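As a warm-up, study this chain.
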Amino acid sequence: MTTFRLAAPWWLVALPLLAWLALRLRGRPQPALRHGAAAHLAPARRGLRARLAGLIPWLRLAALALLLLALARPQTGSSRRSVTGDGVDIALALDISGSMAALDFQPDNRLEAARGVIQAFIEARPFDRLGLVVFASDAFKQAPLTVDHAVLQRQLEQVRLASELNLQDGTAIGQGLAAAADLLTRSQAKGRAIILLTDGVNNAGDIDPLTAAEAAQALGIRVYTIGAGKPGRVPFPVPGFFGNEVQYIESELDEQLLSDVAERTGGRYFRAQDAEGLARIYGEIDRLEKSRYEVTRVDRYTERFNWFLLPGLTLLALAWTFGSGWLRSLP
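Now compare it with the structure written out below.
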């Protein structure tokens, strides 16, 4: 990106003085030409010489302004960031089963609250590669590992409940974990992790969650599991005659399974009962999986004082020419 700057801007403090001089000059009557033969000059000729003579102070002021700008050292250039260090590749696995529509994460449902927290988590890790998997009765890779987080965020914004995507409902935790691990199998990063969020029990899919956890552990992948939802009965929207109505359903969560999955891979299990708690959990994982990066900024600038120096010297030359008797030499 091309930028413009002044390396010595303090020279510009004299510009207000030039502006004051210009105002004084504007209010001063123009001096008449004094020449022995002035009385014999044609009126048109005297008017031309008077006008040219009146330009001299203005040329000097404009030249001084341009020279001050040249002394301020205008520069154009570009900045480039060089990033080095050890990053962490992270696969985000998100449950989109029907129970994620529960309204215990006010003011949103569980899925909307999770989406907002994950978006903030992505923004906090600008140099890491992140990928996205969603799962209901099956798992789907929404985005591969990428540092193009704008693309990842757009994919996340398109995530909806399984019912809204015409997908079969269910909670295939093992499938979601296996799909997330597959995103990381070709990763060369020193740190690799999966963050899996669900609010239910494993009731779909062909892969046992503990088997998927053992495969992740063999690959050196840590798994952080998050159980979302308040215990007990929680509000849940259901279609009614006048639109959605609220009923209460029992919140089901297999905390033991999620804890075992995390423990087998060297990760941790967390329980989130509201949106604020969920944000704290992702913040804690962000600290646990901290990247080590060094960002170096390289600035390259080119001097552009000649843009103002040459015009300024040209105006000075004209002012000197007009004021050195050249006008009197006009025939």
